[in-house]
Amino acid sequence: MRMIDYFEQGFRRRGDAPAFILGGESMSWETARDRVERIAAALAARGVEAGMRVGVYSPNSVDAFLAILAAFRLGAVWVPINARNSDEANRHWLALMGCRCLFYHPDLADEVAALRPVLADGLLVRLDELAAFEALGDSPAPYPADAPDTLASVFPTGGTTGLSKAAEWTLQTWETMIATFWQCMPHEGRPVHLVAGPMTHAAGVLAFCCLPGGATNVILPKADPRAILDAIKREGVTHLYLPPTLIYSLLDQPDVRTRDYSSLRYMVVAAAPISPAKLREAVAVFGPVVCQSYGQAEAPMFMTFLPARDLAAGPEARWASCGRATLATRVEVMGAEGHLLADGERGEIVVRGNLVTPGYYRNAEATAAARDQGWHRTGDIGYRDAVGFFHIVDRAKDMIISGGFNVYSTEVEQVILSHPAVRDCAVFGVPDPKWGEAVHAAVELKDGCQAAPADIIALVKERLGGVHAPKAVTFWAELPRSPVGKVLKRAIRDPYWQGRDRAVG
Questions:
Q1: Residue 399's closest CA among 503, 255, 244, 303?
Q2: Confidence of residue 159 (pLDDT cuts 50, 70, 90)
Q3: pLDDT for the residue numbered 499
Q4: For residue 4, what are the CA distances in angstroms to 81, 152, 286?
């Protein structure tokens, strides 16, 4: 399947539903399809061909979605560019990609001017001038070829600890992900998907997954908690994705328990492990619609899936799980020597199957480093239980070795997040002359709430024991986060290790 084929399927199933809604204004499927055709024709007239890289640099907007769809119509490669990234990160990204064309939002004109040195003679199109650009096409764009290994998009790997690598998503990658989306989340009728997070990341990916069902994508300019709650009722939202940090913010809203969520069918939590206590609270508030998916840029969105029914029917430990392997993936746990481990044993989670991307764009060395005997190494430490549910306990690089004992920071974080005053936290190791590394917790409290370091330490000691308990707790007004809302643990941790030969004890 070509990417434009999913859009065409949605067009045939559309009924009288709008394709996009933003700020109270809607765009019909007919208008969206017509504009996608004209933009693609204009790109072809300006020399853009199948396989060329087309960047889209914009906050959430309808025109940005149309530009991406037009690139897919032509068979070009979509290059998402995060509007909240630093100039340095975006210069690196654009230089790596070699974009032939860049669509950009007018609010980012100054940033684009700073990026011109790496854009060379590429075609620049302001999104507020898109109507004039559409007039440049004099004949329909040619349809692209349909081959599973055709490159369709490249996605950044995150870059929270450095500059991003580029994961290659082929037509096969997308086809596997979209099919898995519908397998995991079957839906009768027309989806109404809320694009609350950045469209350059999971929220945008799920928008394209919903398209074949004739979906309406309701777009929010930014992820404002109250705007999200308002939109669910107003637009009859059925699907939305949220990272854990945004779930926590929704749960903090004073009227969150009095609103109507009857339209919701799937609230997908992804991007980072969620605290079991917060997950349980979310299910109590939003109903049995909260589910989890686990993936990464190299195996997007649906390596595993945890539906609400498995939470309701399972034991207490399942609330800390990320679900079972999906139908199109093989997921295992690998030991340090490269052998696959038995149920209950902890090691690195590995995956193979058509969901796994071919590798990193122009980076054979990084591709080879991430692969082991045909498996993709996720960098996540975890285990599989006896009935096939996977549990992530840490990132490999975030494991703390204190006094010779392994402390998995995610386990400690989940306990701290269960404290009623805590909004978010980061746990990491700091140098210690006695223990090698001492467990340290950086904590962000909810507005108007108070807690003492001794309260946090005592809670962890009670639940996990003294080895896991933080030796110190620091309180932050706001923890630093990446453009997609992940806590930048390294930015908090690294100052403690400055001036040392290595960042482990």
A1: 503
A2: very low
A3: 86
A4: 21, 11, 34
Tokens for 263, please give them: 């339209």
pLDDT confidence of residue 281: 94
Sort 502 into a burial class: Cβ within 10 Å, 0-12 / 13-18 / 19+. exposed
Nearest to 211 by CA among 36, 82, 75: 36
Q: What's the burial of 91, exposed, middle or buried (CB within 10 Å: 0-12/13-18/19+)?
A: middle
| Radius of gyration for the chain, computed over Cα atoms and rounded to the nearest angstrom | 23
Long-range contacts of 117-121 (CB under 8 A, 24+ apart): 117/91, 118/91, 118/94, 119/94
What does the pLDDT read at residue 97? 92
Burial class (CB in 10 A: 0-12, 13-18, 19+), 262: exposed
Of 176, 208, 160, nearest in space to 64 by CA: 208
Is the separation of the CB atoms in 290 and 256 below 8 Å? no
Q: Are strands 151-156 and 166-170 parallel, antiparallel or unpaired?
A: antiparallel
**Taking residues 273-278, what's their average pLDDT?**
87
Q: pLDDT tens across 387-425, in order?
A: 999 999 887 777 898 887 888 898 899 999 999 999 999
Q: What is the mean pLDDT of residues 174-186?
A: 98
Q: What is the pLDDT of residue 160?
A: 38
Question: Residue 209, Cα to own-chain centre: how many angstroms?
Answer: 14
Q: Is 12 helix (H, G, I), strand (E, B) or coil?
A: helix
| Residue whose token pair is 């986060």 | 481
pTM above 0.85, yes or no: yes
| CA distance linking residue 177 with residue 207, whole number of Å | 12
Count helices and strands in the chain by DSSP H and E runs: 16, 25
Question: Going by C-beta distance under 8 Å and a sequence separation of 6 or more, which residues neighbour residue 208?
Answer: 3, 6, 174, 178
Going from the C-alpha of 193 to that of each of 70, 239, 240, the distances in angstroms are 21, 5, 6
DSSP 28-78: EHHHHHHHHHHHHHHHHHTT--TT-EEEEE-SS-HHHHHHHHHHHHHTPEE
> Which residue is listed with tokens 């096409």?
137
Q: d(Cα 158, Cα 370) in Å, to the nearest integer?
A: 15
The type of residue at 73 is: R
In the prediction, which pLDDT does 505 show?
Answer: 67
Euclidean distance between CA atoms 331 and 350, whole angstroms:
6
Q: In what helix (H) or strand (E) does residue 306 lie, and over which residues does it extend?
A: strand 299-306
CB distance 357 to 167 below 8 Å? yes
